[in-house]
Amino acid sequence: MNILLIRLRLIGDVVFTTPIIGALKRRFPDATLTYLVEPAAEPVVRHHPDLDRVIVAPRPRGLERLAFDLRLGRELRAMKFDVAIDLHGGTRANFFTFMTGAPRRIGYALPGRFWCYTERLPWTRSLVPPRHSVLNQWDLIAPLGVGAADRARDPVVMTADPEAVSRVHARLAAARVPETARLVVIHVSAGNPFRRWPASSFAKVAAALVTDPRRRIIITSGPSEADAAEAVAAEARTLAGDGADRVLRCGEFDLAELKALVDRAALYIGGDSGPLHIAATSRVPIVGLYGPTLPVRSAPWRDRSLVTESVEVTGLPCRPCDQRVCAPGDFRCLTRISADMVFEASDRALARANRT
């Protein structure tokens, strides 16, 4: 059987599809599995052990994109897929699914788009009642006879890139980080302002954690927020006093390098964004911060024996939201998460990890 999986755009959403890859390989061990993804999230699936091929679809602008997509659509049709599964539901993924000409084309019954599929599954925004994103996408493989999802058997997966591991090792050595150091990775940026915890709060947590001399706090961010990460590190060093030299930046980490860094860490702290879900592919204890989103929908999907702490402010009538307008105007779902709450969650996560 020749199967195509399509999931474009966001990094975290691509991570959430990785349990499906292993489940399909288990159901159809002789199948050829191909994954179509856009460049930003390609490192997530680049080395997945159950994928036979990864196709990367850049996003050119204007007429150039139209020409590219038509050309890629013809190439997909020539590959003669038996099954094409649209895990995305966007118009571009919708187009590619149709262009495959696969006898079985599976997707969500979205208004105006369902015509391109031979099999359609109900779609809801799943805000009420909330349901994990992995389960929403898992529905799309039910027609293929795949059983229920299981966190322990079907966790999120990202295989480490050996070259990225080497680069991270060299960068930490250059920063004089001892091999025995307990790394705490604090990722201070998010894809949009609705998920961005205040920089000063991150700085306070970093300064509180560095009181243990065995720790090195690595402040990371997305490429567009390097200045914010530098500001967090600078404020944390001021607050840390004698521990200032244990708060580090170590430059920018791409996705493959971030995976390698987190694999070495004793703790990861960050908001609900792609890097948190990259961290979930490791065994590292995680402290996730949830503002407009809910842990029940997007907390790390992995074996429950692995340590995860979710920090949120409950009881807000405006939460969850669609992240287009903050109705109260003050982002209270994030600003009411205090540095003390996150530090205490970090303490619990480290203590729980030490007991396992």
Written overview of the protein:
With 356 residues, the protein is of the alpha/beta class. The protein has two domains: 2-144, 3-Layer(aba) Sandwich (Rossmann fold); 162-355, Glycogen Phosphorylase B (Rossmann fold, 3-Layer(aba) Sandwich). It has a six-stranded parallel beta sheet with strand order 3-2-1-4-5-6, with helices on both faces. It has a six-stranded parallel beta sheet with strand order 9-8-7-10-11-12. The chain contains 13 helices and twelve strands. Helix content is 37%, strand content 16%.
- Named at the architecture level, the CATH assignment of the largest domain is 3-Layer(aba) Sandwich
Let me know the number of strands.
Answer: 12
Pick out the low-confidence regions: none
With strands numbered from the N-terminus, the spatial order across the biggest sheet is 3-2-1-4-5-6
CATH-defined topology of the largest domain: Rossmann fold
Question: Radius of gyration over alpha carbons?
Answer: 21 Å
Our count of domains comes out at 2
Number of H- or I-type helical stretches: 13
Query: What is the string of helix and strand elements?
Result: EHEHEHEHEEHHEHEHEHEHEHEHH
